[in-house]
Amino acid sequence: MIHKTSPLGGATLPTAIHDLDVMNLASVCTATSPVSKPQHTATNMSKKRTLHSFFSAGADVATKKARVVDISNTTKVSPPTNTALSSTAHDTPTTTNQPPSPPSTHIDHPPPSTHPTYPFPISTLPPELSDLLSFSPYNPARHITDAPDLDLLYFHPYIPPTAASSLFKFLRSSLPFYRVVYTIKRGAIETVVNTPRYTTVFGLDETAIFSPSDASVLLDAKTSKPLPSKTYTCTPRPLPACLEELRKLTEASTGHKYNFCLVNYYADGKDSISYHSDDERFLGPEPAIASFSLGATRDFMLRHKPPPPAASTADPGPEHAALAAAHAKPRKFELQSGDVILMQGRTQGCWLHSIPKRSGKDAQRGRINITFRRAMVRGGTENYARYNIGEGPVYVWSEEGQEMVKWDRVGR
What we know:
Elements: H1 51-55, H2 61-67, H3 127-133, E1 142-144, E2 152-155, H4 161-174, E3 181-186, E4 189-194, E5 198-203, E6 208-210, E7 218-220, H5 241-254, E8 260-266, E9 273-276, E10 289-295, E11 298-304, H6 318-328, E12 331-335, E13 340-343, H7 347-350, E14 351-355, E15 367-373, H8 378-388, E16 395-398, E17 403-406
């Protein structure tokens, strides 16, 4: 196993594996600068591991490359059971005409995450993938503040290119998903909404914690006393280890705390989400939301909310004109696999964002979006459970059919 001395510090990472150019943001960000995060600088730079040294030529290169395996086929229609990711050499009798068998390359895989609220055990990250993720962020962030009320950190990419594809396939194959149907009532009119994507969610708001001795028991965050069983109408679920690892990396990179993880799977270019803002009261003022993109490239659109009516139609003033321009002309980021956008400050309160339908290039490929958030009160836990789990069936990825299918509990 590789020892991790400094898992972060994107500004010092080399580009020995992939020499990627940062997306041309001239039309998006005319005054940007890399975000300096001195708190992540290794105290002993002579011991800092880099992607170059990880894959550099040497006596153990073949062994390291052999351990970076394709994890995309470790699961079937049902969620994966815990199996070794690399084959173990079979014991073969040694003869004078046959060389000795090579040593075993078996890699111990951590046990899966289990909880009474999970429909099945959720696999932990393979050790090789976990090692690669420790190099995140791969590139430092660009701070984008060149429009009214806009405050973004844009990592292009955040996840090392060697890990992004494997992480996408792993999460798609390992997590339970849902296709939520819900009803919206506006006055006397009720509208049934079929969510145009697959969703899942894990987390618990700031008012409660999972008991360290029994994760099925919820405790009051202030008093550490058990909460009544009817405190929540839903059943909160803790983050599985695979998402918890990502959460910790994201917190260290962005300087924000998160207690919720929402995962959306867009099966193809037809799946989408309309313009909206994540400015619910249960997130508190000026919430920070870190958004990961894995898999197919999709457009991420941003537009300012409509400005209030101008005091004078003859001369609305420069501020109002800037707001009107930000609303009239949306910003577009072509998010690639491994990219991360952090929306913070006044962004959620003043801007809308969407993932529109897409045709042509990458339209038939799937995409996973992971967002880390911080819910402050119980209403956040209830809201996320309702709109991301609901009461419908569980879906899992079918490697054979290359699609999401209803999970069959038989035999598990």
